[in-house]
């Protein structure tokens, strides 16, 4: 067995194709002994790729743009798609069967601040004719802090990836009202990345054999089966909330299509970041993305 050191930028059911490689035994079947970690606060997965402390990262093509904007050569390339949709949901204190996006201006809105999550949210709201800058935003830091604050009565609206809105809904303190992913449509949201040197190694081909199977399984297996495999990775999350999260992502076609990162959703991601003025130029697809290693 060979080591496979995986680190993710965020931990959620949204990344089930990668989690399934671990929980479903797909990486083990290819001779890997995987380890899993979430990037610590104040650090990026790119830093761990650069220092060779990890092999594979869950990241986003936009992470490379950040480095390029600073005049630096990114330490990693993106070689496989994880999600082809934004995975963030919006929940409110009350059911909103006729939800309108300008409702977010009533009361306070607790959303994930900074980087891609905020840029995608701002773009989705723009597409619906409203601007995030007009909302009375609340910043409570990381996911656990946000959950605790919302449970304690802070804010009227909540923005996070699944299964956290589903967990709040399961507890009876929130109701899911909208989806950022449904508004934006296909976009290069998250991907598997590694150093160019690692992608050229034989291990990368074995990784891709396992990852293709894991992503296909996450996309098509019964949600309850996937949730049962992943449950140990989500302490404190009810099984029903995890099942609901996976079911939602499958319905959204989050994990469909080929594992290669398509050019058109890459261009949409550039649109998103241009809208928030987080980039000053449109970086070519070929500067950031490479083809998946093939056996």
Please explain how this structure is put together.
This protein is α/β, with parallel strands linked by helices. It folds into two domains: 2-85 and 186-287, Periplasmic binding protein-like II (D-Maltodextrin-Binding Protein, domain 2, 3-Layer(aba) Sandwich); 88-184, 3-Layer(aba) Sandwich (D-Maltodextrin-Binding Protein, domain 2), CATH 3.40.190.10. The chain has 13 helices and ten strands. It has helices at 16-23, 26-29, 45-50, 61-69, 115-127, 143-151, 164-170, 180-184, 196-199, 202-220, 223-230, 239-251, 263-275, and strands at 2-8, 32-38, 56-59, 77-83, 88-92, 109-110, 137-138, 157-161, 175-179, 190-194. Strands 2-1-3-10-4 form a five-stranded mixed sheet. Strand 6, helix 5 (115-127) and strand 7 form a beta-alpha-beta unit. Helix 5 packs across helix 13 (263-275). The longest helix is centred in the last third of the chain and has 19 residues, at 202-220. The protein is globular, with a radius of gyration of 18 Å.
Cα end-to-end separation: 19 Å
What is the name of the CATH class of the largest domain?
A: Alpha Beta
**Based on DSSP secondary structure assignment, what is the total number of beta strands?**
10
Largest sheet: 5 strands, mixed
Share in β-strands:
15-25%
| Annotated CATH homologous superfamily of the largest domain | Periplasmic binding protein-like II
| Helix/strand order, N-terminal first | EHHEHEHEEEHEHEHEHEHHHHH
Count of the separate structural domains: 2
Uncertain residue segments: none
CATH fold label of the largest domain: D-Maltodextrin-Binding Protein, domain 2
Alpha carbon gyration radius:
18 Å
Structure classification: alpha/beta
Note the total helix count.
Answer: 13
Major β-sheet strand ordering? 2-1-3-10-4
On the 0 to 100 scale, the average pLDDT is: 96
Shape: globular
């Amino acid at each position: 067995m060979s080591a496979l050191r995986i680190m993710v930028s965020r931990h959620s059911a949204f990344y089930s194709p990668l989690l399934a490689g671990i929980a479903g035994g797909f990486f083990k079947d290819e001779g890997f002994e995987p380890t899993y970690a979430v990037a610590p606060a104040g650090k990026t997965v790119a830093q761990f790729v650069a220092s060779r402390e990890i092999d594979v990262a869950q990241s986003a093509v936009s992470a490379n743009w950040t480095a390029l904007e600073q005049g630096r050569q990114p330490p990693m390339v993106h070689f496989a798609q994880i999600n082809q949709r934004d995975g963030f949901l919006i929940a409110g204190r009350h059911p909103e069967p006729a939800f309108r996006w300008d409702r977010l201006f009533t009361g306070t809105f607790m959303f994930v601040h900074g980087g891609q999550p905020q840029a995608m949210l701002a773009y989705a709201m723009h597409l619906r004719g409203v601007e995030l800058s007009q909302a009375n935003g609340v910043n409570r830091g990381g996911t656990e802090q946000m959950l605790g604050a919302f449970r304690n009565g802070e804010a009227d609206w909540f923005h996070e990836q699944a299964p956290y809105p589903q967990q709040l809904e399961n507890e009876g303190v929130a109701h899911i009202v909208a989806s950022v992913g449904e508004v934006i449509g296909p976009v290069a949201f998250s991907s598997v990345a590694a150093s160019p040197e690692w992608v050229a190694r034989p291990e990368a081909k074995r990784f891709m054999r396992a990852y293709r199977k894991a992503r296909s399984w996450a996309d098509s297996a019964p949600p309850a089966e996937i949730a049962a495999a992943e449950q140990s990775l989500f302490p404190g999350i009810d099984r029903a909330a995890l099942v609901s999260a996976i079911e939602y992502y499958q319905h959204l076609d989050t994990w469909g299509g080929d594992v290669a990162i398509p050019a058109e959703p890459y261009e949409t991601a550039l649109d998103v970041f241009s809208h928030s003025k987080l980039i000053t130029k449109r970086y070519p697809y070929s500067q950031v993305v490479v083809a998946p290693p093939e056996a």
